[in-house]
Structure formats: structure tokens, C-alpha cells
UniProtKB/TrEMBL annotation:
One of its GO terms (molecular function) is ADP-heptose-lipopolysaccharide heptosyltransferase activity. It holds the Pfam family Methyltransf_11. SUPFAM superfamilies: S-adenosyl-L-methionine-dependent methyltransferases, UDP-Glycosyltransferase/glycogen phosphorylase. This is Methyltransferase domain protein. Residues 44-113 form the Methyltransferase type domain. Keywords: Glycosyltransferase, Methyltransferase, Transferase. CDD domains: AdoMet_MTases, GT9_LPS_heptosyltransferase.
Length: 516
């Protein structure tokens, strides 16, 4: 469109904010933020001159004399991104301002510029033009200025160049990524729009991402170019999955929860299919505190939520369910995992706890002692986060038990889980990661039923609580408010009610089969 005087004025950044999400993670300054920062995590910087000129109330995080000089406000290469919307055209010496802004960007970071386009906005001195504008810009003007900066300050990639004149926009967007190497590269010119594209959205834990991975091969078989939208934690788990072509990464709460529906609706327009698996388990098949379903009678919850997680995800994606969810280690990770194994004996990995208070088994020490007696030649790996070191206490002098909690990263843990003979644990991401692997599994269920979780798992023994009316509760637990805690062990009653003898027998049976 062309600018119209009767269109809503101000808050130009709101028009572009969903486009800039991939480039504005981490430490971001919003130059000339005015009264509205584009996102809450931005550090708003403004001179507040519009307060004196137009009476606009502003409360930036940092007040400067002039946004073209940030020397007293922003350290060199301290920003993951510098964002500026409709500011540069107000600055007389704009090449100097660009040089100053570029100084603040880290190598690998972004300079994100949103500016009125000369072809769509009144020229200086004509009717309707902003009287404070010093320049009428086209994208080439900014690119040429940035070329001169490269000579002194290193190189850049131009990753976005968009003409924005739909709806109520009359602007253009340029995004430069800073490189240590000299020279200019125009990455946006290399981009080709695939004929069939799918975006799969999932923000979740390790197990959630492995479940998400189960639909990716089916999408690839149908010819889709697959983008996964997730957090850095989710990307870490799936980063070597061969069925992923591209990533859309957001930091946790980078887009506030209340704005996610609007953000997703905007992003969905870019893809042939948009598959949102957010809350496909939590909130849907596991009730969450604060939701109405959390107060339903247990029978109603069970009737409504006793559905297989993997099958439900496949239904949302519109693909057939398949046992495709896997973790893909790098060759280096796999080699390290193999180097830890005991040759000629039984290798067992025990995932000590999950992300919720009910996901640890209180009878582990009794089972471990029995295993050491049953299998003189064995190696048992205990894995978990730093807090799981408490659960490892007492085994410091037993050489057959390798205490790795807090020592292995999640990827190294999952690589090792793929290689051992037997994997044991509660409902954790580690068990999800090997659900369809050929090695043997023993899982102690808590808030999920066999139908929910392990129905399709291969070589798996699923142990369920004995004579416990609250199982399966189909509820998420962040504390003990709605989970029954055993007073003797401090564990959930659902885990306390699974006899150690049953766990030991299941492991012995699976271990013998694993090495047969």
C-alpha cells in the first residue's frame, strides 16, 4: 500500500514483530523504542525527544541524548541484536549511526532495520511527510552504507530483504548478520521456497521432542520440506535428526504466552501445513493445575485422556502413526558411548528421575543390590541431573556402578541409552528416546497408562502401580498438592506401590533376553 494520512499512526514496530522473532533472541536493544517496546525482553533506548515535541509519555529502560551515540549506554559487541524501527530516517548522519549500531552487535548477531520505503511514503517536503525526516530511503541506500562499514568493521550476511507494503505497512525490512570474516554476502538471494512445506511446533521437554520426532519421517515421505519450531532445549535433542530441513527457534517466553496464538497464526501463513503439537500431551491428555480438567472426577479424566500420545500426535499431523521416534547421536557421541560399555557383560542404564516430583523410584537401591548379586559381570550406569547425585549416594565404592548424574549432558546420556542392553526408569525422556530401539526397557509408570505411553514400545516391560485407586491419574504434578506422597520414602505412592522384586524380576528377564 501507499501511506494514507487517515491510517493509524505510531507503534510501527508492532507491524513487523512476528517477522523479527528469529533474529531477536537473547540480549536485544530497541533503539528509538518510543512508548512501546516490540517485546518485553528488549532493552528500550530512547532520547525521549517526542515527549517534549508531542507530549508522548515514554519510559524507556535507558535514556540517551541521541540514539546515534550509544557509547555511554551499550558496550562493544554486547548485543545479540540491535533493532530499530522508523528511526534512522530521522538521523542526519545515518552512515555514522549505522556504524555505531554495528559496533554494539556481537559476531553472529543481527542488525534489524525497519524503515519507511521511499516508494510508499510521502517524500520530504511533500504533503503528509513527517517534518522531522532527514532522508527518503530505499533498501539500496542502507545496503550501500553497510558496504562501507564492512571495510573497517568486518563482514555481514544480508539474511532478510523484504518490501513491506501490504495491509497498513509502507516500509522495508533489512536484517544483517555480523561475521568475523570480511566481505558481504547476500544470503536472502539463495533462499528458495519449497513447493510443499510443513512446520511442526513443539515447545517441551526431552520426551516431548522425541515424540514429536515420530511424525517427521512420515512428513518427509510425503515430500514436505520440514521446519521444526521449538526452543534451544528442543533443538538440542533433535539437532542431528535427518528429517529436519530447517529450524525456527524461540527462547523460552521470548514470545509471551498470551501472544503465541497471534504469532502462530502469522507463521502458519508461510507453510503448506502448520502442525502445532503444543499441549498435545500436557493440558490435553495430561491435565494441568489451574485447568478445568484438573478437577474432573478420576473416571471422567480417564475416559477422556486414556489415549496414546503418539497416535494423537500423528492424528494432529495428518499422518499414519509409525514407530519412528528416535534420537540421532552424532558419530562422535556414539563412539564415546560405545567406549563406556563393558565388553562381555551386561550393560544397564538407570534413569534416576524425571522432570516431575513423582518420577523417581524409591526401591532402586534394593534392586541394584540384587542385580549385582545376579550378574557378577555387569556395568550399571546411573544417570540424571545434578540433583540425582543424592540418589547415587552409597554406591561410591562399587566399581560396577558408574555414577554419571550431573556429569553427562542429555545428548551423551541418550547416546549411551541407545547402546546399553537394558534401560530402566520412570516416565522420563530417556525412556522415550529408546522406545523403539531394539534394546530392552523396563519402565515404572506413574501418571500415564500403558495405553498412553508404552502401548507401541518394543521390547518393553511396563510396570504399573499395584492396588492404587489414583493410578493412572492423567495429571501433571509440579508439587505434591494433588499427588499422593509416601510418608516413609518421600516418593509418590504410585512408585512406592511397585514392589522392588517385580522391578528386579523384569530387569533379570529382559537382561537375559538382551544377551541371549
Amino acid at each position: 500500500m501507499t501511506w494514507r494520512p487517515d491510517d493509524p499512526q505510531g507503534n510501527e514496530a508492532a507491524k513487523i514483530r512476528w517477522e523479527i522473532v528469529p533474529y531477536t533472541r537473547g540480549a536485544v536493544v530497541d533503539l528509538g523504542c518510543g512508548p512501546n517496546k516490540a517485546f518485553p525482553h528488549f532493552i528500550g533506548i530512547d532520547s525521549c525527544k517526542d515527549t517534549a515535541l508531542f507530549g508522548i509519555e515514554m519510559k524507556p529502560d535507558v535514556v540517551v541524548e541521541d540514539c546515534s551515540d550509544l557509547s555511554g549506554a551499550v558496550l562493544t559487541e554486547s548485543c545479540d541484536a540491535v533493532f530499530s524501527s522508523h528511526l534512522l530516517e530521522h538521523i542526519e548522519d545515518y552512515p555514522a549511526a549505522l556504524t555505531e549500531w554495528w559496533r554494539c552487535v556481537k559476531v553472529g548477531g543481527y542488525l534489524v532495520l525497519y524503515l519507511p520505503h521511499k516508494s510508499f511514503y510521502p517524500h520530504i517536503g511533500t504533503a503528509g511527510a513527517n517534518p522531522d525526516h532527514k532522508h527518503d530511503f530505499e533498501p539500496v541506500d542502507i545496503i550501500n552504507a553497510m558496504r562501507k562499514i564492512v571495510d573497517a568493521e568486518g563482514g555481514w550476511d544480508l539474511v532478510e530483504r523484504q518490501q513491506r507494503n501490504g495491509a497498513d505497512e509502507y516500509s522495508f525490512l533489512l536484517v544483517f548478520r555480523k561475521r568475523a570474516e570480511s566481505g558481504c554476502r547476500f544470503e536472502h538471494l539463495q533462499r528458495r521456497q519449497p513447493k510443499k512445506s510443513a512446520c511442526v511446533v513443539r515447545y517441551g521437554g526431552f520426551g516431548d521432542m522425541i515424540q514429536t520426532a515420530s511424525i517427521l519421517p512420515a512428513l518427509k515421505r510425503q515430500g514436505y520440506h520440514v521446519t521444526v519450531m521449538t526452543t534451544p532445549k528442543g533443538q538440542e535433542i533433535l539437532q542431528h535428526d535427518p528429517h529436519i530441513d530447517a529450524w525456527s527457534i524461540q527462547d523460552t517466553d521470548q514470545v509471551p504466552n498470551a501472544l503465541l496464538p497471534e504469532f502462530w497464526a502469522y507463521q502458519a501463513k508461510k507453510y503448506t501445513v502448520f502442525i502445532n503439537l503444543s499441549e498435545s500431551v500436557e493440558g490435553t491428555l495430561l491435565s494441568m493445575p489451574g485447568r478445568v480438567s484438573h478437577s474432573w472426577p478420576a473416571k471422567v479424566r480417564h475416559d477422556m485422556m486414556n489415549r496414546n500420545y503418539g497416535e494423537f500426535a500423528a492424528s494432529l499431523a495428518g499422518v499414519p502413526f509409525a514407530r519412528d521416534g528416535k534420537f540421532y547421536p552424532s558419530p562422535e557421541e556414539d563412539a564415546v558411548a560405545q567406549g563406556k560399555l563393558l565388553a562381555g557383560g551386561i550393560n544397564l542404564l538407570w534413569a534416576l528421575s524425571g522432570s516431575s516430583c513423582h518420577k523417581f523410584y524409591p526401591g532402586q537401591d534394593e534392586v541394584l543390590a540384587s542385580l549385582l548379586r545376579a550378574f557378577p559381570r555387569c556395568r550399571i550406569f546411573l544417570v540424571g541431573d545434578e540433583t540425582c547425585k543424592l540418589l547415587e549416594q552409597g554406591w561410591e565404592k562399587e566399581p560396577r556402578i558408574v555414577r554419571l548424574s550431573g556429569e553427562l549432558g542429555i545428548r551423551d546420556t541418550l547416546a549411551l541409552a541407545k547402546r546399553v542392553d537394558v534401560v530402566v526408569g520412570c516416565e522420563t525422556g530417556v525412556l522415550n528416546a529408546v522406545a523403539f530401539e531394539p534394546n530392552r526397557k523396563v519402565v515404572m509408570l506413574s501418571h500415564s497408562s500403558i495405553e498412553n505411553l508404552t502401548k507401541h514400545w518394543v521390547n518393553t516391560v511396563s510396570l504399573t502401580p499395584v492396588s492404587l485407586p489414583c493410578y493412572p491419574c492423567h495429571m501433571l504434578h509440579y508439587n505434591w498438592d494433588n499427588c499422593h506422597q509416601d510418608g516413609l520414602t518421600g516418593a509418590a505412592k504410585c512408585q512406592r506401590s511397585i514392589p522392588p522384586k517385580s522391578v528386579f524380576q523384569a530387569i533379570v528377564t529382559t537382561a537375559i533376553k538382551a544377551v541371549a
